[in-house]
Specification:
It is built from 17 helices and 14 strands. With 431 residues, the chain is of the alpha/beta class. α1 crosses α9. The protein binds 2'-deoxycytidine-5'-monophosphate.
Length: 431
Amino acid sequence: MTYHAIAIDGPAASGKSTLARALAERLGIVMVNSGAMYRAVTWKILAEKIDPQNTAAVFNLLDRMEIVCGHDGIVSTIRIDGIDPSGHLRDADINANVSYVSAIPAVREKLVALQRDYLKHTHVVMEGRDIGSVVFPETPFKIYIDADPSLRSSRRSDTGEVDSVEKRDAADSTRDTAPLMVAKGAAILDTSHHSIESGINAAIEILRKQGFPLPQTAKPGLAGEPAKPMRWIYWTGWMLFGSAYRSLFGLRIIGEENLITSGPVLVASNHQSFLDPPLIGNLYKSEMVFLARKTLFKGSFFKWLYPQWNAIPVDQDRPDMTSLKTIIRKLKEGHRVLVFPEGARTLDGSIGAAASGIGLIASKSGVPIQPIRISGADKALARGSGKIRFARITVSVGKPIVLSESELKNTTGKDGYEALTKRIMDAIKAL
Ligand code: DC
């Protein structure tokens, strides 16, 4: 699986963090604030009473420092020797010294390696000074954010921070190692005359032009989900079911903006009727993987058709070990997979108990989880009835659950999988 990096560079207080965070939220990917990493190391140096300009002493301390980077949901985290320094990162003494520390090549080498590590397991939008030039020079998705210097200074003082933005910019732009610059291929976005919302839209427009696989809802009207086009056989089912849902059941979708439409996603939905898999498949404009009871694969036609629609046969309604492994593999390969945690369809429309399989799949694959609630499908085609009724079907899409690395690490064993399953089911029930 190849992960994408969006590089956002620019001077201090240009609006990088706000923009990177908004992009991460809209795209459902992790936002990494690389400046926070340089600030965290500066905090440690000052906490150890070391002079940040004493390169040899810094080098020595760096060697002994354990830096652990991760993410909590979509936001990056950092701990140094087990301590989370985030409460101190904007202190005046850190603002005053971070440019000295970030000019030390050994510091940069260590942090750049940690920044690149993120891309081994997730898509990232990373902001800093050298992301497009040094950290991810190969990425085609680069934006250089700028804003009027006086505006940037006032943005900082508005937050009550003591920060000499101009001094820091001068130091960051003139240092020998990885100075602030417009990276090759970066689009320049001046946020001086943009509101936050219009700045985000302008950035999304830039990413679209750079070919980033945007979710269909990244911006209304921008639609562009340049994932692989559907094969005709999948498209035929998708289109037929989709038109039927809209005309027969007045399909209503709530929370469409929450859909993650690129990259691997574990879609977890309640299960009401046989209508559910194509119903969920219809939310997305590219193919996804489904599970279907082995017994449905009977007769040569269905044996041929179901795999065409990406259905994986599972034993009974509860996936067995082989199916679990197949699902995890599919997710790791980058597919979007639909799982009904309850296994069987509901008898009365209510949401039943879930086996811990979904927790295990979510934990082992580490991909974002998209909770979805279907209602009305049990009336449209009740379990045990072959009759279609004109009932209204509503699908509610929840905000993705993105597990941090520490959450993933701690989700092991039966208890861990059960707790995660409960979290997923609670998210579905809350919709
Ligand atoms: O983005 P920020 O203002 O929080 O960054 C703090 C300092 O860290 C900045 O003055 C320069 C340095 N920095 C860097 O050298 N390279 C990066 N990729 C990010 C930040």
